[in-house]
Write a structure and sequence with these properties.
The protein is mostly helical and 112 residues long. The protein folds into 2 domains: 1-43; 45-112, no CATH class. The chain has 5 helices and 2 strands; from the N terminus they run ββααααα. The protein has helices at residues 8-43, 46-49, 65-68, 75-89, 101-107, and strands at 2-3, 6-7. Strands 1-2 form a two-stranded antiparallel ribbon.
């Protein structure tokens, strides 16, 4: 399978081996890194000290799911990081953490 001096079969095999090596590496070694990341977040009290910033509109911005999917944070810590800590720092009034489902549906035109 050589064309223009390139062995495409070797390229495909190398890509598959690289993918497998990465999958095995991250599948086996990711758990200790996630645990260590959780310990770091505990050490500097992320649930009360960390403010979320997305860096939007850049192409490499961080969506809120970068916080909501962290397994070592409880729900209250996630809410704090995503907005309640900033409200406290900037002395903003927080009326309600989540809108009521009935209010959301009432605000949508044509939905009852």
């Amino acid at each position: 399978m050589t064309f223009a001096g390139i062995n495409y079969l070797a390229v495909i095999i190398a890509a598959v081996i690289g993918w497998l090596a990465g999958a095995i590496y991250y599948g086996v070694l990711a758990n200790p890194w996630v645990a260590a990341h959780g310990k770091t977040m505990e050490a500097f009290k992320a649930d009360t000290q960390l403010l979320y910033a997305s860096d939007w509109p850049h192409w490499d911005f961080d969506a809120p799911s970068s916080i909501t999917t962290l397994p070592f944070l409880n729900e209250q810590a996630k809410r704090n990081i995503l907005g309640l800590n900033a409200a406290r720092v900037f002395n903003l009034e927080v009326k309600r953490k989540r809108p009521k489902a009935a209010d959301v549906l009432a605000a949508r035109p044509g939905v009852s």
